[in-house]
Amino acid sequence: MQTLTRRRFLSQCAVLTALPRVAISSGLSTNAHIIDMGNAAYLDRSQTRIELDARDGCTRPNHDFYETLAFAGVNTVIRYYSDQNNANLNCKNVTRRERDMLHEHGLALAIVYQFEGRSKNRFTGARGTQDAEFCLHRAQVIGQPSGSAIYFGVDSDAALNSDQGVTEYFQAVAQVFAGRFDIGIYAAGARCDLIQSAGLASRFWVPEAPAWLGTHAYMNSNRWHMFQNKTNIDLSAVTDGHGQKIHIDTNIVNPDQTRSIGAFNGDGSERLYDAQHLTSVVRAHYWVNRDRLPVYDFPGGAEVGHVCIARTVHVTSSHGGWAEVDIDEDGLPEGYCQQDGLLPLNQMPKWRRTSCKLMDI
User: pLDDT tens digit string along 244-256?
Assistant: First the structure.
């Protein structure tokens, strides 16, 4: 039985408002349970090297934040391998210390490699070999178990890199890995489709970038495994109030394709998700099907916000043509929008350029 320390008690009191208010019929929460983070939550984020020792920053882990994640229903954190850290993402590289810390809080860990993913002509066979060898080294350092997944971020629209270059990149990765790790791709729908059709990866993760080539068609094909539905959340009941600004992204798993994203537990085993829970999460999320959909404090009341075309909301309840919506994935609804402005997750509308501006969340 876990000891209720003063820190844990205060953390749990602070996060009570982050708990899901509405549960589906199965009794399982529809709150976000898989997040990705560009940097670890440390109170001294000043890492200058990949490996940590007593002289580096990133030595004061923000345990309150990780306790809050676990208490709010998060069970998996996706973190990075990257060639180097930078000014915006100190502590970007996951370390053995962080792996142990996540597992101590009951959180599974999944891995994505990303470095200069938006550079033009970056993806080539030679670079695939280099990146795969780097990932093997990092996997050895943190003790990533064989058979888990490493995703590779092709983090740009299709115009920056050729189909041939991306294909040769993943061919090289597969050759270097030689079956030791599952290969995943984080990319626009067109790139996921390209690599999936070529049989060069087994896990397909679509970014929250609805304008990118092929994303609309790929999402509606139902071939995707994971969708990053919200990005850069730092003002929710889960992320706020921990002594630092912490950005998280949230993700949805497609239960028609998988019960796993290749994450691993503290004992090295694969983290599997309950199929009923995954289904409930999908069914609770909807696309916005209007250029700009107002959110009101109550049906017919004052406008308190808005959401834009081809973005998602989490519907916590609906009645009389109105949907109560959570737009920052902390389980608490921000207000109400008209139900006929929404489409289920298997019917993504085409993104189009409008005057609608995304709100900070």
Answer: 778 899 999 999 9
